Amino acid sequence: MDVRERLKIGISACFMHADPKRALFTGKTLQYVEQSIAHWVMSTGALAVMIPSPSGATQRGDVTLDHYAEWLDGLLLHGGADVSPLSYGEQPIDERWAGDRIRDEYEIALVHAFDRAAKPVFGVCRGLQLLNVAYGGTLYQDIATQLPHALTHRDASVYDHNFHTVEIVDGSRLSYLYPGARNARVNSIHHQAIKDLAPGFLVEAVSNEDGLIESIRREGERAYAAAVQWHPEFHLPGSGLFDDAALLQDFLAAARNAQKQPR
Predict the structure, then answer these.
(1) What's the predicted TM-score (pTM) here?
(2) What residues are annotated to the active site?
């Protein structure tokens, strides 16, 4: 395929903030993406492009997030640090869950830049939570603390081998993508979750055991915005877990449509 025909999918950066005690890149801020999420995007032939934050103590030049939104065909928000409660109008109930406000501000600005450019956005795990917060929703800061009878959604000892089933909502776009599928087995690596759903979004899947929201999508005529709480990039072929190929192709189809629209 000619490189000019390939989709360019931006991936939001994770942050490793400056730490003078760190031996490598002492005192420097690192921005990075996890390998699996880039390879998941690239499995389709699309080009994966990390979008660095243009702001910070070392900022130079006039590049903005709007420039990236105009150039790229879609945005993928991936996992990582907690979303800060400050980003949705709450105080942390425990300092362990203070989150990364700097990354929140960068990603919320990124979401709105792609929205202005009418480009699709897809979120994974933290990406679902961030997308919800970006449009006015709230989160449970810690499922085990605030919903003590809920399923264990994160088990550090097994990490991405912690599984549960989700129920796909009848009549949703997700149910259209997976005709006949009622339930699906997914991984679960999160301790925060959606509390109040953002206005303008619909629930597409919930956890069978406790009803927590596992998949959302924006309704109406605005640009595509959807997300899942699980990590599709960790679902290996033949594993018996949810086959996320149709979900990825749906996002990329929206990116292709956006690519065809006149600038």
Answers:
(1) 0.96
(2) 125, 231, 233
